[in-house]
Write a structure and sequence with these properties.
Its cofactor is Mn(2+). It is built from 9 helices and 13 strands. With about 400 residues, it is α/β, with parallel strands linked by helices. The protein has a single domain, classed as Purple Acid Phosphatase, chain A, domain 2, CATH 3.60.21.
Length: about 400
């Protein structure tokens, strides 16, 4: 009688053991896929990115000097969703992607300064004070950085509104969080950060103030190029003798993206669509003013969500930085710059593609279904089927 009871207990124990083994396998697969898709894939992608090489020797007559190199990251159009637009899952997914990408880039690449070229938020143009505070808190969590890394942000149309939506309250609210700084100099390099939304040229109060600030910046830059102690420049510290890097949200005027190319350029069917001045790009007049006043050696902009390289007047290069978010691009990226007072080199760093991550998840779900059915005996194991087929051939 005792032997019968032991056998009965053994029969109950075997199915339980099989179920436990199945559960452990499912948990292991799910954990491995989540770990790879939500963490490791960012390291795998960004690990392949390297800072570009730049010449560090400058010559003043016959004398050579070694110039310091500034490592700068440029990204754009993060578009953190607000309380009105976008599903909560969409918000969670995209913000996690940007947070992991940014934190991984900081850890692996160790930039000295990061510039975000506008449209940090998606609904800043109409968000309430409470919603704005929540958006800012989420931004500061996602883009947290060590104290030795500087983070600079320029305003975009989704942060303060298009020109017809912009007002003093929205501009001051943005500048209270991100500073109203227009000129930033480090390691002998000048960066000019422009509120391009205010360059409409219609004489509005904010527009006039923005132009006055740029004229003052232009005056200071011109003084740095002139002989030291010039009476016209007056007393006070001079800027480094270096042509500036111009940073803004709207691109300078161009007719369209027809001449843009590359994996992250606009889709072919959109490249020939004419741009609207003061909506897609700055007006021709405003663009000419910026080039004349500031005489930049390099321009970086955002807004279009796609990459493009153009040359203004045949000599001033402008790079449009693609969106950093999966919400706007399947293949987001950012630009890495090695910059000295006299030279620069840029390279692009691609983030994981969203479709690749989705394919991995779909493949994992299919594998889990096959694994479960096999354990339940509802689907023959491919290995056992092959083994049985091989036995049948041997018996012939």
């Amino acid at each position: 009688m005792a032997m019968i009871e032991v056998g009965f207990e053994g029969q109950n124990f075997y199915p339980l053991k099989r179920k436990s083994a199945l559960l452990l396998k499912l948990i292991a697969v799910v954990f491995a896929v989540l770990l790879f898709c939500e963490f490791l894939i960012y390291y795998l992608a960004i690990f392949q990115c390297n800072w570009p090489e730049v010449k560090t020797t400058a010559y003043d007559g016959e004398q050579a000097s070694h110039e310091p190199v500034l490592k700068a990251m440029f990204l754009a159009d993060t578009h953190l969703l607000g309380e009105f637009l976008g599903h909560w899952l969409d918000k969670l997914r995209r913000e996690w992607q940007m947070e992991r990408a940014f934190q991984t880039a900081l850890w692996l690449l160790q930039p000295e300064v990061v510039f975000i070229l506008g449209d940090v938020f998606d609904e800043g143009k109409w968000s309430t004070p409470e919603a704005w505070a929540d958006d800012v808190e989420r931004f500061q969590k996602m883009f947290r950085h060590p104290s030795h890394v500087q983070l600079k942000v320029v305003a975009g149309n989704h942060d303060i509104g298009f020109h017809y939506e912009m007002n003093t309250y929205k501009v001051e609210r943005f500048e209270k969080v991100f500073s109203s700084e227009r000129l930033f100099s480090w390691k002998g390099i000048n960066f000019v950060m422009v509120n391009s939304v205010a360059l409409n040229g219609d004489g509005c109060g904010i527009c006039s103030e923005a132009e006055a600030e740029l004229i003052e910046v232009s005056h200071r830059l011109n003084c740095s190029r002139e002989a030291r102690g010039s009476r016209r420049c007056g007393p006070g510290p001079l800027l480094p003798v270096s042509a500036p890097v111009l940073l803004q949200h709207y691109p300078l005027y161009r007719r369209s993206d027809a001449n843009c190319s590359g994996d992250d350029a606009a889709p072919p069917e959109e490249r020939n669509i004419p741009f609207k001045e003061n909506y897609d790009v700055l007006s021709r007049e405003a663009s000419q003013k910026l080039l004349w006043w500031l005489q930049p050696r390099l321009v970086l902009s955002g807004h279009t969500h796609s990459a493009c390289e153009v040359h203004h007047g045949g000599r001033v290069p402008e790079f449009s930085v693609p969106s950093f978010s999966w919400r706007n691009r399947n293949n987001p990226s950012f630009i890495m710059g090695s910059i000295t007072p006299t030279d620069y080199a840029l390279s692009k760093c691609y983030l994981p593609r969203e479709d690749v991550v989705l394919v991995i998840y779909c493949g994992a779900v299919g594998f889990l279904v096959v694994l479960t059915l096999s354990h339940l005996g509802l689907l023959a194991s491919p290995f056992l089927s092959g083994l049985n087929l091989l036995r049948k051939r041997k018996t012939r």
